Amino acid sequence: MSINWMSKKNPHILAIPWPATGHILPMIDAAHQLALRGITVTFAVTPKNLYYLNPLMSLHNKSTNIQTLVVPLPSHPSLPAGSENMQDVTQDYFLYMVEASSQLHDPILQWFKSHPCPPVAILTDAMNTTWTHPLASVLGIKTISFMASNQYIASTVWSRYKEMKKEFFNGEMLHNTIDSWGLVLNSFTEMHTKSFGFDAFKAMAKHGRVWGVSPLLPVQAAGSERGGPAAMPSHEVLAWLDSCDALEKCGVRFIWAVKKPGKVVENESGDQSVVPAGLADRVAGRGLVIKGWVPQSVILKHRAVGSYLSHLGWGSLFDGLMGGVLLLTWPMRPDHFMNKQLIVDELGAAIPVCEGLDTVPDSAKVAQILAWMKIRDKALNAAKQGGSAYKALDDLATQIANLAP
Prior knowledge:
It contains 15 helices and twelve strands. The chain is of the alpha/beta class and about 400 residues long. Belongs to the UDP-glycosyltransferase family.
């Protein structure tokens, strides 16, 4: 991509993701697109999360547009030793991870002061804004908040942490996000109806610097696994899928991705990684149970995959969208229900299967696959040159370039 249109030379930003796979990966995809447009991005990650950047570093190995800042995560008395990612713990540890991450304020401040060409802005996950927004203010630079999830989940998903008597977080984080110089949304304008439009955020922020940059094409590099080493190598999963016949009468073939057993002790959330005893043996030949990280976006694009039963995390929703599969929904947490409200109730582009365990799918609604494919076409068009997401990335890069002295 030509970058002759850039008016400044290599403006520099610091990217600080929230330490969870579903948040790190879309920020990596956004950083890749910004780097292609002439922006230098320094990624601040803790040591155990550095491997997520391998595909990105591989693609940009001949340029200096992608750099890394590896900062050790300070210990926290309530976090299990060695936990640096939300995959290591349950959601009950969320605020402890926030508190541990906030201790990176001073190390990053010192790094900034010693840098010969410091950033003009911090691209921060909204989850981090309780400390990254004040940091940017101290440094005299801009905050650009990145919302990896559906922007309309905030009032519900974050309110649950009030139960932990940490009322400060919900209000402070939302305030700092809205108070940011710019907002980057992991969505695109055509996906949102009037009640789910971007205008609400523009009205709250009182400016027009709101960019819908998705679908972001996943960063893929030869020899590197997206999201780190998979529990089962991609070529083995694809070989299994290649042997499948979608019309086979002996039963539905499936892949069940199960969360890797965590490092935390049993608590009120229960064990989220239990597979019924003997299941793998009983379904051998037609079912594949994988414990841990899986190459989800690759699987969903395979010709043998016809449908996707999803809890409706925002990243998973987009993976299903770009894979062109029939999306079956099973929301479980507050943010999932907000995503279901958009994709099922507002857009009619997915089929609800369960909300808990007391409902069954309505076969008459299979016709909604047509609506889903129309949304997919809009997503693909948004990502193409001249599409809404493509133009939003161009404008974001231009606005960042204009911040450079």
